[in-house]
Write a structure and sequence with these properties.
mainly alpha, 58% helix, globular, disordered C terminus
């Protein structure tokens, strides 16, 4: 079969994920060749992750040169399949993201960072510092769920904020969204779990308590048996539910 162009690959992944397709019995059998070319070994990594990169060097170069919009769609789509890309692919995607931070919309920052964290990418410290600096300019432009996704991604990466002011601005932004009802139950759960892993303080504690109260209220109002299951990422961050939320399109 002919190999897809980068755009065709992105559209295929995004289209299938948007339709709710989880990848089938062996997602790696088609995802690996789609991402890395037909010569790459069709190794299924599954939710356990890991594996080695085959002969996909040119494909990795294509990832590093992806536009922001394509990177947003691709990383989000991959969170919808029961499969994890190789460490090399994730490193290439992280490099592409870091190199284009100044071109990212606030929604791109939230979607890509959370998607990479969900897929267990490991950004280097310099990349996290650049991301944190870019996020500090976008707090007021992020939705409640996007703020929650950002906080969760940084918590999963065990990031330590550069200053009390940086963390306080994130906390205040979360408080404003909570006060206006701007967080889904999934977002509330992430706020409760992620903020204490980023730091501490009286105001932070108040916001976490506020989010927990709203989450308890939402749970009490929900029909019996409608609760969401926690994901592996949730277990890694004090049991929070971190199911991937729908991508906000620019």
């Amino acid at each position: 079969a002919p190999e897809f162009s980068t755009l065709e690959t992105v559209n295929t992944l995004f289209g299938l994920a948007s339709l709710g397709y989880s990848g089938g019995a062996d997602p790696g059998a088609w995802l690996q060749p789609l991402l890395l070319g037909s010569k790459a070994p069709a190794t299924a990594y599954g939710s356990g992750g890991g594996g080695r990169l085959g002969s996909g060097g040119s494909a990795l170069g294509a990832v590093e040169s992806m536009r922001v919009a394509d990177l947003t769609r691709t990383t989000w789509a991959l969170t919808q399949f029961d499969w994890r890309p190789s460490e090399e692919w994730l490193a290439a995607a992280t490099k592409a993201f870091t190199g284009q931070l100044r071109y990212c919309l606030p929604s791109d920052l939230a979607t890509i960072s959370y998607s990479l964290a969900y897929l267990r990418a490991s950004p280097p410290p310099d990349a996290l510092r650049l991301l944190a600096a870019q996020l500090s300019r976008a707090w007021g432009q992020l939705s409640g769920d996007e703020l929650a996704n950002v906080a969760m991604s940084l918590a999963l990466w065990q990031y330590r904020p550069p200053s009390d002011r940086w963390l306080d601005e994130l906390v205040l932004a979360c408080r404003d969204k909570l006060s206006s009802g701007g967080c889904s139950p999934d977002g509330l759960s992430k706020v409760v779990s992620a903020l204490p892993l980023l730091g501490q303080g009286y105001r932070l504690g108040q916001v976490v308590a506020q989010a927990q109260a709203l989450l308890d209220g939402a749970a009490a109002a929900a029909p019996a048996g409608s609760g969401e299951e926690a994901s592996p990422e949730a277990d890694a961050a004090s049991g929070a539910d971190t199911d991937t939320t729908a991508m906000s399109e620019a």
